[in-house]
Design goal:
Blueprint: E1 4-9, H1 13-24, E2 29-35, H2 38-45, E3 52-56, H3 64-74, E4 80-84, H4 92-98, E5 102-105, H5 110-121, E6 126-127, H6 129-142, H7 154-164, H8 169-176, H9 180-194, H10 199-208
Parallel strand pairs: 1-2, 1-3, 3-4, 4-5, 5-6
């Protein structure tokens, strides 16, 4: 089985090297390169084509948000996962707009990191559940904005909750005993009704407007 090619981008050498060692021990992942700044990453991207990128938010010279925007201009379909710490939730909306596929806490277990990489490699999105609940809590404190009447069905709400919990389309189909094609249709309807351009934006919309209860 061909392994998923990953580039690590983080300015903390000890963290980067440790994560690389753990990922390289897995059967699914191969770390093909690493960078300590956004600028170094973009140079690597000129000669190395990864399957997935793990990107730190705060770095010197060029931060993760700027590097992500530049990388996606050149490679629009490149799956990028943000490595975040608690307290960096203020960046999330901007990163979603930039086109990232999800967020992981930097203190996540390696099993969760591997799961997230595999999920976005297969075309899904991934949110660390601890991070997601933190975002929900913070936004509930700041506002009580309700969604306009979107005419979302009960089944669509069920699908939306599972999307927010990080389930793939195949997993949702199995859990709800419906076909993969039906899940695709529900997801498309949700994207259209909420004017979200991807699944990550859909999750953030659901959080902001309290469309689902994830407690």
């Amino acid at each position: 089985m061909e392994r998923i090619k990953v580039i690590l981008v983080d300015d903390h050498t000890l963290f980067r090297k440790g994560l690389r060692m753990l990922l390289d021990e897995s059967e699914e992942i191969e770390v093909v390169d690493e960078a300590s700044t956004g600028k170094d990453f973009l140079k690597i991207l000129e000669k190395v084509q990864p399957d997935v990128v793990l990107m730190d938010i705060n770095m010197p010279q060029m931060n993760g948000m700027e590097a992500t925007k530049e990388a996606l201009k050149q490679h629009p379909s490149l799956p990028i996962l943000m490595l975040s710490m608690h307290g960096e939730e203020e960046y999330f909306d901007k990163m979603v707009d930039a086109g990232v596929k999800g967020f992981l806490l930097k203190n996540s277990e390696v099993e969760e990191v591997i799961k997230a990489i595999c999920t976005v490699f297969r075309g899904g999105s991934y949110f660390s559940q601890e991070l997601l609940l933190g975002v929900i809590s913070g936004r509930n404190r700041r506002n009580n904005e309700e969604a306009k009447d979107l005419a979302i069905t009960e089944r669509e709400i069920e699908v939306l909750k599972l999307i927010c919990l990080g389930y793939s389309n195949a997993d949702i189909a199995d859990k709800l005993f419906i076909s993969h094609r039906t899940v695709d249709r529900h997801r498309s309807n949700l994207l259209e009704k909420t004017s979200s351009r991807n699944s990550v934006a859909l999750v953030m919309y659901a959080i902001k407007h309290k469309l689902v209860d994830l407690d």
